[in-house]
Specification:
The complex is a heterotrimer.
Chain A lengths: L18 E3 L8 E5 L3 E8 L4 H12 L9 E4 L2 E7 L2 E7 L6 H8 L4 E5 L4 E7 L3 H5 L17 E6 L2 E9 L3 E7 L3 H13 L3 E4 L22
Parallel strand pairs in A: 2-12
Antiparallel strand pairs in A: 1-12, 2-8, 3-6, 3-7, 4-5, 5-6, 8-11, 9-10, 10-11
Chain B lengths: L1 E4 L3 E4 L4 E5 L12 H10 L7 E7 L7 E7 L5 E6 H15 L1
Antiparallel strand pairs in B: 1-2, 3-4, 4-5, 5-6
Chain C lengths: L8 H6 L12 E10 L2 E7 L3 H7 L6 E2 L6 E2 L12 E4 L6 E5 L9 E5 L13 H4 L8 H5 L5 H14 L14 E13 L3 H12 L4 E4 L15 E2 L2 E2 H13 L4 E4 L2 E7 L3 E6 L15 E13 L3 E3 L12 E3 H10 L8 E5 L3 H11 L4 E6 L9 H4 L4 E4 L2 E6 L6 E5 L5 E5 L2 E5 L2 E3 L11 E4 L4 E4 L6 E3 L9 H18 L32 E3 L4 E2 H9 L5 H8 L12 H12 L3 H4 L13 H5 L11 E2 L3 H6 L3 E5 L2 E6 L8 H14 L2 E4 L4 E6 L3 H8 L12 E7 L5 E11 L2 E6 L4 H15 L6 E4 L4 E7 L3 H6 L18 E6 L3 E6 L8 E7 L3 H12 L5 E2 L2 H10 L32 H4 L10 E8 L11 E4 L11 E9 L4 E9 L8 E6 L4 E8 L14
Parallel strand pairs in C: 1-7, 8-9, 8-15, 9-12, 15-28, 17-24, 18-19, 18-24, 19-20, 31-33, 34-44
Antiparallel strand pairs in C: 1-2, 3-4, 5-6, 5-7, 10-11, 13-14, 14-15, 16-25, 21-22, 22-23, 26-27, 29-30, 32-33, 34-40, 35-38, 35-39, 36-37, 37-38, 40-43, 41-42, 42-43, 45-48, 45-50, 46-49, 47-48, 49-50
Helix pairs in contact in C: 6-7, 6-11, 8-9, 12-14, 18-23
The chains are: A alpha+beta, B alpha+beta, C alpha+beta.
The structure holds zinc ion.
Chain lengths: 223, 98, 1003
Amino acid sequence: MADLALQARTPLQDLARPGRFGAATAKPGLLIEERTDLALATVMARRGREHDLNRAVAAAYGIDLPHGPHVAAKDGVSFAGIGVQRWLAAAEGLVEADFVDRLRQRLAGLASIAEQTDGWAVLRLRGDRVRDVLAKGIPIDLHPSRFATGDVALTVVAHIGVQIAQLDDRPTFQLMAFRSLAASLWSWLSKSAAEFGYEIVPSGSPGRRTDRITTTKRSINSD
Amino acid sequence: MRIICPYCGERGNEEFSYLGDASLLRPDPAGAGAMHAFADYVYLRDNPRGSHREFWYHAAGCRSWLIVTRNTSTHDITRVEFACDVAAARMASFEDEG
Amino acid sequence: MTQAPASSASEKRSFQPYRLPDGGLIDRSRPFRFRFDRQSYTGFAGDTLASALVANGVRVVGRSFKYHRPRGIFTAGSEEPNALVELRQTNRREPNTCATTAELFDGLVATSQNRWPSLGFDAMAINGRLSPLFPAGFYYKTFMWPSSFWEKFYEPAIRRSAGLGRAAPGDDPDEYEKAFAHCDVLVIGSGPAGLMAAVTAARSGARVILAEDDFRLGGRLLAERMVLDGRDAASWVALIEAELESMPDVRIMRRTSIFGVYDHGQYGAVERVGDHLPEPPAHQPRQRFWKIVAKRAVLAAGASERPIAFAGNDRPGVMLAGAVRTYLNRFAAAPAMRLVVFTNNDDGWRTAADAINAGLPVEAVVDSRPDVRELPAAARSGTIRVFRGAQIVQAKGVRTLRAVEVIDAEGRATSIACDSLAVSGGWNPALHLTCHLGGKPQWRDDIAALVPKTAPPGMAIVGAANGAMTLADCLRTGADAGVRAAVDCGFTAKTIALPRAGDDSVAVTALWLVQGKGKAFVDFQNDVTAADIALAVQEGFRSAEHLKRYTTLGMATDQGKIGGVTGLAILSELVERSICEVGTTTYRPPYTPVSLGVLAGHHRGKDFRPTRLSPSHQWALERSAVMVETGAWLRAQYYPQPGESDWLETVSREVRTVRSAVGVCDVSTLGRIDVQGADAGVFLDRVYTNAFSSLPVGKARYGLMLREDGFVMDDGTTSRLAANHYFMTTTTANAAKIMQHLEYCAQVLWSDLDVQMVSVSEQWVQFSIAGPRSRETLRKLVDTQYDLSNEAFPHLAARPVTIMGGLNALLFRLSFSGELAYELAVPARYGDAVIRGVMAAGEAFGITPYGTEALGVMRIEKGHVSTNEINGQTTAHDLGAHRMLSTRKDFIGRIMAERPALRAPHRPVFVGFKPVDRAARLNAGAHFLPLGAAATAENDQGYMTSVAFSPTLGHWIGLGLLQRGPQRFGERVRAYDPVRGGDVEVEVCDPIFVDPERVRLNG
Ligand SMILES: [Zn+2]
């Protein structure tokens, strides 16, 4: 079958095409970028190995696993708390690399790993009106005093389960939904952003390195 | 209603699904009278007015099963616990006694 | 005031005869044209439709619901019972819009309601003269019999003669949306109390949302000539508004109604984003539905004035006294040329004073109290006739008020000519929102009104909403509540000097009903009179709730805001119990009407609910697949080819191709759950009826799950990929439910087990490749180092492979069709590439894509159960799967499945059916009856669950549940289906119609 080139398709390939859309505002209120370079995996601590897992992740990635809905990141690798003893690990630019295999090796016996690279549509959102757009679907409070850089939440937008994280103070938000629901999420997002005008930025456009998560984890057990 | 998930924080009840009475324990299937015990476990429910410990599942969030102590007439929620913590504590106390 | 009629046509159009020469919060530099009942008029920016109609001298704006009496504008707010119009045209037409709250815009078109054929001549007004025939309960009594007449005759007739406006004829062209807001302090209402609450809370640092129904902040301050800190009220409002606007954590929501209070600080609100515009600007919604979550709320909703019931109190020209002031002061529009005031309280006198101030002649003030302490300055000036201890017994005139008849303290009757009557029966605090969580109001004699008894948790009630009727009290209670709310949210209070304001007397002595001849209206919108209440009491409807249902008092769009309290008071006098004892009806959301469109928001049409699409969706569309909804998924149902005449021809061709060559079907919709951990096998043993800890690595096994009550919950194949790693599949329908169930088992029942699970449904796209040529097809895809021979990769093998030159995949040898078949799972981003690869690989063998229909036909031919059989009412025994119930271990549902009744011999059991007449068609849902037996429930022996036309056998076949079915092969029964008119003789048979020896499967 050598004649068949294996063409990967991103979840929003036909929908999130670069350009300027919605109201013709002076400046787009929202910038949208589909991130297609993230290798993803669910990491679930094996029973009784929680402390060893913390140590192993620290040793392998220099990251303290967050115990709460926060993301901790270093050098393009991040671990987001998505449940009790459960994380979503992400690595930038490593979709076609062996990030998940190496994760399995490094955490063998300490965590159950399931690859999710293909399971999620990933959007990065920023712009002056990003919070106003998100308020049309995200039921949780995204006010800076309540949801800050490094915070993660799993919630629902327009009946679609999503994971949202604030990546930096600009602010940039990362919004993720299951791949099969990408078109429905897009329908909500594009309609919600239209009144402010929005621009779809090509994936991996200049400046994305600064999108990296810059803070380390904030524990909910801060007492 | 708003439920404060011990993992996720305060959320609307639409993110959760409800199961009911959290005081019910799955009977010992090998015990004497297991059939009757299971019939009670599966079908019989009290419907109290006032404080009620009940299972809620954070389906759209962290996917934790929670035990919520809720007043059924005022909807006041006084306590939210991880169901697995409650189960572990029960097992520990059972072992202590055993 | 009165000006000479203008001569030219254009001047005539822009002339507003009842507009005061100056004043008002309107922009005279921006005139707006509008049409009401086809007549053109002009108003100004800042007008409501009602104020513009008042300025143009339009008196009759609608007809009443039951008697079709001419009605005029009665209020200046959302409690308006009469001036309900159809706003806009065609598909934007919205009935029952309050003219009193509809903001005027250039080009507005409104039509009155409840008149046929026209407002001036109403054919139905005869109802008014026939009114002895239309007492309370008329509909219940008259249209009860015969019941079949209801649909054909009574209802259409009533709808034409009554009804409240017409719905739009087609789809609403506008967009609606939902949004969420969070704050420390939500302030509801922006009158003096609300503004003080908002500004004190905000200055303390709290995040504040100030919600105001109106398009302008200020509440009653906009309508009164009041002075605060030496400024007129409007400029004081502007000062506070500017301060609030400048604060980053304050959100002012104008044109926003808080319509409901829900548990734990949640509030429902509608923001009318584009209702004040001809149509919403591009990309803007018309309305937005807000869900607001607030730690604290301050209710400053004010109060609404109530009428006094007397004969003819609904005549056009009779208006609430406070509304008269609103039109004069805020809109510079004169509702009257010759005004009479009828009041039972001091506040009513303000109307006389304001009218005189505006230069309008006031004929008389009629105060029902004999001992009015002190007359306002205007009355003292001697230009007004003052009647103390007097009552108006009748208002006269049909299309407009012509005179009122006064009975003075001595019992003498006087007729006073006038064109307008301002009525004040006192003020009702707007306490509805305090009752949405079950609160009940209480009666306060000193203000003769119901006030909130308790507040919902986290809510403070201030100002007139709490019975604090003077301006000074409103300011003080508002400021106090704002500070307290901020402190409750953890902020340090900043005290604030209260503005200086007058403390006008608001003394009131209750007067509900003036006895007299003629209809005295209590609920204007539903035409409920004082006599109707008396009739209800006479007939035994003595509780507030019964009165409401019997008379329809309080059931119209104003929900009793005008007449509710008055009705209760009259009831309480009739039954000689206090208003407290009589009680109130239940106040429920919404406080004001909410359009269904805004509740739906974005979720209409294809966005009604989210749709899930497989990675092969685009490819399927290119193949002209016909799509079908299965749960949230959109799946290919069948793939028609040119020349095929109907779905049956296509599906039959797909089935024949699979059975003779090879086909491919996307089965990604199955739930897939990754189960890992040292105890994964033990865990699966407990959730499945059969064993999985004994499954060898590299093999798949069909598993059955029960609910704890012993009925079958789900089935699917689960494979063991490694010692501690299983890959579970669930049915499409139950994927989420099974995940939740497994989490329950792991977290609640057996939290000591080392088992972790996560859905990987979205990670993998999965294709079923089935048919005798499927191995050859796969051979071209799977990389050469993997041996696919029957020996190396037998039925139920399950292993990771690479395909197409190194792509990681999972290959399972599973068959739903009964053919030699595989399922191939690959990472979803390659789903499109792989389906194209499979088609290319199978081309030489005549591959066809097949959809859910062919899948269904083949599983029925093979007698496999599906959702039709696993329907929540069937046991493993019923489905012939009892051999899968392990006797060597416990599992969920084991004990309850052993209940004798679930094993009783009379329970219908799974078997197959063929029509005796092979040309006959079968219907799912048909019930089985013994031949010759009557079609009665006693003779019912089971039912057909699934049917299909089998292209393999050339006739219809069915699966179903039949009493003692397996012992009755060869017997004939009746498949009786009265719903679809089927009555077919069928032969009971083995449910496996094709290849019962499983030769093909193992080929
Ligand atoms: Zn949670």
